[in-house]
Amino acid sequence: MKPALLLAILLLILGATILCCQGFTYTTHDKAMQFGPIQVTTEEKHTIPFEPLAGVVLLLGGGIILAMSLRKS
């Protein structure tokens, strides 16, 4: 398989994933207080958003590379 074709497929998959998933969320646990054996913890959710424009750019780039690699064959 040609490297350009492989790159195009990878960019298309990555672009579609970014457009489908708007970001990802993770949770951190922090120790708030401790009274002897009793411990109080807090959960805090953090969200890292994906920019939809990045997904569109990756899809377009992958499509262009795919078209160019298939055209040369």
Helix content: 40-55%
Quick one: how many beta strands? 2
Strand % is 25-35%
Q: End-to-end span in angstroms?
A: 12 Å
**How does the overall form come out from the CA principal axes?**
rod-shaped
Q: Radius of gyration from the CA trace?
A: 21 Å
What number of domains? 1
Q: Major sheet, described briefly?
A: 2 strands, antiparallel
The order of strands across the largest sheet is: 1-2
Give the overall pLDDT as a whole number.
Answer: 90
Order of helices and strands: HEEH
Low-confidence stretches: none
Structural class: alpha+beta
Helical segment count: 2
Give a structural overview:
The protein is rod-shaped. It contains two helices and two strands; from the N terminus they run αββα. The longest helix is centred in the C-terminal third of the chain and has 21 residues, at 52-72. The protein has one domain (3-72). With 73 residues, it is of the alpha+beta class. The model has no long low-confidence stretch (mean pLDDT 90). A two-stranded antiparallel ribbon has the order 1-2. Helix 1 (3-20) packs antiparallel against helix 2.
